[in-house]
Amino acid sequence: MKTYSAKEWQDILRLQGLNSFDDIWNCEKNKNFETHWVEEPNQRRGGWSGVVRIVLRDAAGSVRVVFLKRQSKHKYYSIGSPFKDRPTFEREFRNIIRFNRHQIPTVTPIYYGQRGDDAILMTEELTGYRSLKEWFSEWEEKGFPERALRNRIINELARVVGKIHQRHYKHCCLVFKHVFLNLENDEVKISIIDLEKLRYWFSKQYCQLIDLDSLFRTRINRIHTTDKWRFIKAYLGVDASKEEIKTLWQRLSLRLSKPRQSRTVRNLWRNLSAKLIKIG
Questions:
Q1: From 130's CA, which of 49, 53, 66, 180 has a CA 20 to 30 Å away?
Q2: 189, part of any domain
Q3: What does the H/E/C string look like for 144-184?
Q4: Tell me: the pLDDT tens digits for 71-102?
Q5: Domain that holds residue 66
């Protein structure tokens, strides 16, 4: 995978002078629009990455907002390609395409490109959406939604997460800031972002435990037991038996009762694994 450009966006990009990898990589030099850092460049794993928000206009003058992610020297190894490193954004782009193909709500890809150690990924803004982290902070301050709406949110979130796991995908970082919610026009819509770490896993049960552990731990002391139970029931579906619901509830409760493995330990193991693969 070297370059992807969505057909419906090609004219808009050309109109704004974003005709090539270099044009997009050096977007701050473009006088047709302004860029604003959403995530300042951060240095880690021997490279850097950052995200900017760009307000573009199409031929009719309508506003089209995009997010541009840039990275350098952020690579990963895969089982399918254990001796060749690839940009982590390539994996994220491929996962976005997979979600779109399986009709799992996520962002819309506009452009992907890579050159040497550098990679860029441009996606369309999720208009009308806010992260569940933002929503939850607002609810803690101003009051939570009435029970009917809260149940609709829980049911839709459970449906989307369940759809991910039915395909044996493990998000690996399913926390509130990566779950986006839209409540406009009396609708409840969920979209999942940040698919950089998502991967296929043969055990659906393992996908369940890892992702639901992350999701519930985000506000573990603020999520009511009733809401967790409703989520589990909706997640497993109407055909699930009481025994299935009880089993998943017990397994998840046991996992949540234990301290989470520290990020330091996980990073040490990941770096050691990558080095062993590279040496081999």
A1: 49
A2: yes
A3: CCCHHHHHHHHHHHHHHHHHHHHCCEECCCCCHHHEEEECH
A4: 999 887 666 665 567 899 999 999 999 999 99
A5: 3-124
